[in-house]
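Why do we bother with holo predictions? Because pocket geometry can differ from the apo form. Keep that in mind while you read this record for iron/sulfur cluster.
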Amino acid sequence: MALDRFGRNISYLRISLTDKCNLRCVYCMPEEMTFRPRAELLQDDEIIRLVRVFADLGFHKYRLTGGEPTVRANVVAIVAAIARTPGVREVAMTTNGLLLDKLAQPLAAAGLTRVNISIDTIDPAKFKKLTRWGEVSDVWAGIHAAQGAGLAIKLNAVIVRGYNDQQDVVDLARLTQYQPWQVRFIEMMPFGDVADFQQAGVVSEAELRATIAAALGPLSLVDDGRLDGEARLYRLPDAPGTLGFISSVTEPFCASCTRARLTADGRLRLCLLREKEVDVLTPLRQGATDAELTELLKEAIWWKPWGHGLGRNVIPLNRVMSEIGG
Ligand code: SAM
Ligand code: SF4
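The structure, written out:
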């Protein structure tokens, strides 16, 4: 078991498979993003070895993210290797869905059970503006392929003032009246070069709920407000699906946080909104034994931070979201 000094049992690892992406969402990365050379990224065998060490430490839940995890070569083989590692109970993925049309079936066969698919608006023109060149029809094809492959689906939307904060929010919420999906609205967080844009465009959870309720009826709290992962859930009248709100900035969920993140270049990041990271790649490449890696990880986890410093204007500047693994 990997405990931190606040008594939290850290057992959920998000692995960024790559910093690269086939989109350039305005809230995630600059248009002229430069990516790391391949040699600086964790190689397949390094990821698989680290998962074995993490699993021995009690990590049982894994989420592959990025950048865009589906653009990584060998993604299906990586999923299969993680899924068969002793101690691993769940392998999930966060993806923009563009490549799921082809990959959903093989990924499910390899052991993937859940996908969170990002779709910030169902309006094709606005989708293109938010992602800089994406086609929302490709995401729909991915969602249907994921459904066909039997993957559990949640939809993620980041709401940006002036881009998708009005009708788009209502249209996304309306999906839950027809499908048993969880549609989650993620509060925009500030990182690196795009922090100013992000802070200016944040739309609060209260505002989103008011917009949805005015158009579609009252929202009732699900499960007395107990968090589902990081989301607080609501339901529209008679809807089969639910609405989730992830408000990491205004309502942090640090007490129930069991996550750690492995960046694509092999750093362990214990809090999304704190810059501190521990280099795992260098010792791994210098020949550290499993026992030495275990000690390194345990020590890093012990010092997992509590709470972000955004209220005091302490913004994580060393990386943007796609490099950390959202
Ligand atoms: N490319 C995949 C995708 O878009 O789903 C996975 C990586 S992406 C970084 C993971 C999640 O982070 C997505 O749901 C995305 O919308 C969200 N995200 C990106 N930048 C964000 C920001 N500044 N604040 C909050 N969420 C953000
Ligand atoms: Fe790519 Fe996902 Fe970032 Fe959009 S949010 S640019 S899809 S990594």
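The longest strand covers residues 152-158.
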